[in-house]
Design goal:
The structure holds 2 protein chains of 2 kinds. Chain A is mainly beta. Chain A contains no helices and 10 strands. In chain A, a hairpin with a 2-residue loop joins strand 6 and strand 7. The radius of gyration of chain A is 13 Å and the shape is globular. The N and C termini of chain A lie far apart (30 Å). By secondary structure, chain B is an all-beta fold. In chain B, a hairpin with a 6-residue loop joins strand 4 and strand 5. The chains are: A mainly beta, B mainly beta.
């Protein structure tokens, strides 16, 4: 079982804002990173270090963190944002990685 | 830009050994850690283990000591072996780099089926 907890599914209307959350004790000590995975493709990091966005990732993606909860916000969701999103961080020991169970985002 | 390309046998019988290799192109191999992650069909991501550029390894306890990650710095490659595979090891296996508190980039993935 995952040490990071995500809602299994979230939906958002086209152009609206959606927040995907991730909860876990390790997030009190380690930043979450967020990964977008489209069908048949490898995951791609969209947010790391809590709020950093890799080059090439649209600025509608943003991250935040408070206590044991991290969140990924998509402001003005586009059809191409429909995907599975996974959070990840080091575990409480700091030695291993853990993933959330993933959130399937549907853009209506 | 760093790219990872992976390969290995895609169909195994129970009790055989899974063997995958990942090559790193277009960037430095040293100074980073390298990891393997798997994803059973229709399920989420599971971290398998990690190796740093000195060869120090860490593994997910769920593998029960069946997994070994090694590296070949002369070839800019790292590898994964999992012994005594069962149907539960059927998954898409990804290699990836650990950098700045994130896992990026990822290899293209290799589907390994045990049957």
């Amino acid at each position: 079982s995952s040490e990071l907890t995500q809602d299994p599914a979230v939906s958002v209307a086209l152009g609206q804002t959606v927040r995907i959350t991730c909860q876990g004790d390790s997030l009190r000590n380690y930043y979450a990173s967020w990964y977008q995975q489209k069908p048949g493709q490898a995951p791609v990091v969209v947010i790391y270090g809590r709020t950093n966005r890799p080059s090439g990732i649209p600025d509608r993606f943003s991250g935040a963190s408070s206590g044991n909860t991290a969140s990924l916000t998509i402001t003005g969701a586009q059809a191409e944002d429909e995907a599975d999103y996974y959070c990840s961080s080091r575990d409480s020991s700091g030695y291993h990685w853990v993933f959330g169970g993933g959130t399937k985002l549907t853009v209506l | 830009q760093v790219q990872l390309q992976q390969w290995g046998a895609g169909l195994l019988k129970p009790s055989e050994t899974l063997s995958l290799t990942c090559a790193v192109y277009g960037g430095s191999f040293s100074g980073y850690s390298w990891t393997w992650i798997r994803q059973p069909p229709g399920k989420g991501l599971e971290w398998i283990g990690e190796i740093n550029d000195s060869g120090s390894t860490k593994y997910n306890a769920s593998l029960k000591s069946r997994g070994t990650i090694s590296l070949d710095t002369s070839k800019n490659q790292f590898s994964l072996k999992v012994t005594s595979v069962t149907a539960a090891d059927t998954a898409v296996y990804y290699c990836a780099r650990v950098v700045w508190g994130a896992i990026s980039p990822w290899g293209q993935g290799t589907l390994v089926a045990v049957s």
